[in-house]
Design a protein that fits this description.
Layout (H helix, E strand, L loop, with lengths): L2 E5 L3 H12 L3 E5 L11 E4 L2 E4 L5 E2 L1 H10 L4 H4 L2 E3 L4 E4 L5 E4 L6 H9 L3 H24 L6 H7 L3 H7 L5 H8 L3 H8 L18 H9 L1 E4 L4 H13 L3 E3 L4 E7 L2 E7 L4 E3 L2 E4 L3 H8 L7 H9 L5 E10 L8 E4 L4 H9 L16 E4 L12 E10 L15 H15 L8 E7 L1 H8 L16 H4 L10 E3 L10 H15 L3
Parallel strand pairs: 1-2, 1-14, 2-10, 7-16, 14-20
Antiparallel strand pairs: 3-4, 5-9, 6-9, 7-8, 11-12, 12-13, 15-18, 15-19, 16-17, 17-18
The protein binds flavin-adenine dinucleotide.
The site of flavin-adenine dinucleotide (FAD) has 37 residues, from helix 1, strand 15, helix 16 and helix 18.
Length: 500
């Protein structure tokens, strides 16, 4: 039995704690915030309840595995609801596409909305994505990253390399296989699931819509934050100790290996194993003493493009919106302008800037647990945004910026046909700077490093750090961000630590 300290009670930290405690280790989780969940957070005011981060659960099998490993059935712990339609898209030209929640119905829906063989083209693309998935799931998503060895293993079969086409971008595969510009936009958007630019992210991200359609899009009744609570409960039931309002200021290294942590205030907790669930840049930049062994990951992090962030509006609304899907995506006319603004690229080049005419994502769960009465709604609105970077990009703490931008976004929504300004009780704005402060993610980057570039996935921080006894879990480490990958990263870390 090892003494394990887990730093951070985001889903990654909690899932690792649950697995390791169930495996017989003595686990303590230390979380800086007052509540657990990290980005999988919750906000409540005047009876309006919001998920402040994720609004979409995909790949339920990974949570099923997690709960089974800790002695429970997922379905007994959280109430998962399959969404149908999975998502509704609204394009600038007025086209509407409601993507059905069952994969077999998707091609017809696309053909009806977009025509021109879109259904058949999408089917062909998803067949390619399925092949990519089969090649990459086990050796990449479910296996520790081992730098060149991982690349070599993936490269062993020329046929597999041709399928994955590491030289091709997501935009490239869309241009090759999809004729309709709106369908290409729909595909491009999946780059943002890893905080990336479709023009630079690899084609293998086509596996994201494949996984979403094959395994379904899901909601957790009562809000997704309940998933964090349920995983936290699995951890404590297995004997883990969960301490909130406990910020770690240092990972202790003694005799060349991780030896515990020091909290703000000076308390020290000795440990045989330290699992960091905090942003990898924060771990290597702030929590660890400088060490030549960590030079490699620090260099890789510095050379990667940080992932995009987001501006969130939590809208408390009077009245109801008939016919609004659970998730709706309102696309702009010029999608590239959005990525140029977020990453500071394109014809205007220069610094990243708030997107003037962004894609707007509205999540409006029809869930009585989230509203004060039947004549109200609680909406989560998200737009992509550059991270908080006062020196080289946007200073999201600039007085007045958040409120001005929130007003702009409500006007954008109104132009796209959904004017809720007269129904607004209040609006809570969360900027990238707020996200950074709340969760410790540097600059509010949602996914750590982006997947921009063919090698990005292999430069992500590995789960086993160069310091023996110190492991990394979560969205900024391998295999990546988003709830399912974070849960897989916990499985990998638990495997690396091993049984008690
Ligand atoms: C707006 C938004 C929308 C999203 N939408 C989706 C979605 O629809 N579907 C999806 O799958 N994913 C989505 N994601 C991504 C998903 O939320 C994350 O990938 C995932 O929750 C990250 O979990 P984590 O455990 O890696 O990190 P975090 O949740 O960031 O957890 C890290 C924890 O560590 C704590 N911490 C940091 N520093 C310290 C310290 N020094 N001492 C102690 N504790 C510390 C933090 O407070 C935090 O609780 C979204 C994220 C955001 C922000």
């Amino acid at each position: 039995m090892a003494r394990v300290v887990v730093v951070g009670a985001g889903l990654g930290g909690l899932a690792t704690a649950a697995r390791l405690a169930a495996a017989g280790h003595a686990v303590t989780v230390l979380e800086q915030a007052e509540q657990v969940g990290g980005k999988l957070g919750r906000y409540e005011r005047d009876g309006h309840v919001f998920d402040t981060g994720p609004s979409l659960v995909t790949m339920p099998q990974v949570y099923r595995d997690l709960f089974a490993a800790t002695g429970a059935r997922l379905e007994d712990q959280v109430d998962l609801v399959r969404l149908d339609p999975a998502v509704a898209y609204r394009f600038a030209d007025g086209t509407r596409v409601d993507v059905p929640g069952t994969p077999g119905a998707v091609p017809d829906a696309l053909e009806q909305a977009l025509g021109n063989g879109s259904g058949a083209e999408w089917t062909a693309l998803m067949a390619r994505a399925e092949a990519m998935w089969r090649i990459s799931e086990q050796p990449f998503l479910r296996t520790p990253l081992r730098g060149a060895a991982t690349l070599a293993r993936l490269a062993r079969s020329p046929a597999d390399v041709a399928t994955i086409a590491p030289w091709q971008t997501l935009r490239g595969i869309g241009e090759r296989q999809l004729s309709d510009v709106r369908l290409r936009m729909l595909l491009d958007r999946y780059a943002t699931y890893s905080g990336s630019d479709p023009r630079r992210a690899p084609a293998v991200l086509a596996t994201v819509p494949y996984a979403e359609q094959a395994f379904g899009s899901w909601y957790v009744r009562g809000g997704l934050h309940r998933l964090a609570l349920a995983v936290g409960e699995r951890a404590t039931r297995a004997g883990a100790v969960l301490r909130t309002a406990s910020r770690v200021r240092r990972v202790l290294v003694e005799g060349g290996r991780a030896a515990g942590v020091e909290l703000d205030g000076g308390e020290r907790l000795p440990a045989d194993v330290v699992v960091s669930g905090v942003d990898a840049s924060g771990l290597y930049g702030d929590l660890l003493p400088p060490d030549r062994r960590t030079r490699g990951p620090r260099r890789d992090l510095a050379s990667a493009t940080p992932s995009l962030s987001g501006v969130v509006l939590l809208l408390a609304l009077r009245g109801r919106t008939p016919g609004l899907a659970h998730h709706t995506v309102f696309f702009p006319d010029d999608y590239d302008a959005e990525f140029d603004a977020v990453f500071g690229t394109g014809p205007l080049r220069g610094s990243p800037r708030p997107v003037p005419d962004p894609t707007v994502y509205v999540s409006a769960p029809d869930d009585p647990a989230l509203r004060p009465d039947e004549d109200s709604e609680s909406w989560f609105v998200l737009v992509n945004a550059p991270r908080h970077d006062p020196e080289r990009g946007v200073d999201w703490d600039e007085p007045g910026l958040a409120d001005r931008y929130a007003a702009d976004l409500l006007a954008v929504l109104a132009r796209r046909g959904l004017d809720v300004r007269a129904r607004l009780r209040w609006c809570e704005v969360r900027t990238p700077a707020d996200l950074g402060r709340a969760t410790g993610s540097v600059g509010g980057s949602i996914y750590g490093s982006s997947s921009n570039g063919a090698r990005a996935a292999f430069l992500r921080p590995a789960n086993a750090s160069p310091v023996p006894g110190l492991f990394l879990v979560g969205g900024s480490a391998h295999p990546g961000g988003g709830l399912p990958l974070v849960t897989l990263s916990a499985e990998i870390v638990a495997g690396l630590v091993g049984p008690a």
